Amino acid sequence: AAPHDPLSRFLFDDAALVVVDKQAGMVVHPAPGHASGTLVNALLHHCTDLSGIGGELRPGIVHRLDKGTSGVMVATKTDLSHNVLARQFKAHTIQRRYRALVHGRVQNDVGTIDRPIGRHPVQRQKMSSQSRSGRHAVTHWKVLRRYDRERLTLLDLTLETGRTHQIRVHFAEKNLPLVGDPLYGNSKKDKAIGDGETRRLVEGLNRQFLHAWLLGFAHPDGRQLAFCSPLAKDLQAVIDHLEALYG
Length: 247
Prior knowledge:
Number of helices: 6
Radius of gyration: 18 Å
Largest sheet: 9 strands, mixed
């Protein structure tokens, strides 16, 4: 992906790693049904020296964002940097913050969800806290804004762990599904939003309202780095409209 590639923006690029602002709709690494057009393909086009530890299909990938999630992501270019970053993810010292819009009124201003996540026992494409092989998963949340008439709440989330679909599962299981989520969401709730323009914007998202806005970690050379990404345009349009409605 050259810097003008609309699918991702380069925020940082040196001999050790590359940080991108991933657009929604882009799959991170090749998988059945997604052999090309992935973030890995784009990165390999941009830099031929991604680290080999992840294997041929996942070079340099130490973490991932779901296809429908936008925001900041790091990929490594050397085996050393891959190991350094992987250790930080394992030790939960990486700083990861997200914005999410959920259906429902979140009562408390702050809180934590601590429920294990693993493969759903019946629906194999989904994750669940009911899995027999669930792994420790912790999400901290803070309410940024309540849009009570529309029964929507804007949250700032801090991930302590990074399980697959963690935020989406944690909130769906509290009956606070992410707006627009095609897998864990509730399209009836999307369609039931009272304000017509909000409903139109939400139905036009074609993805969950989830954005990784901050990623902070220690570079292999010891520097502490942090990268921010503004809310993606489609998500910002929803918030701008709600803010105008609520003054």
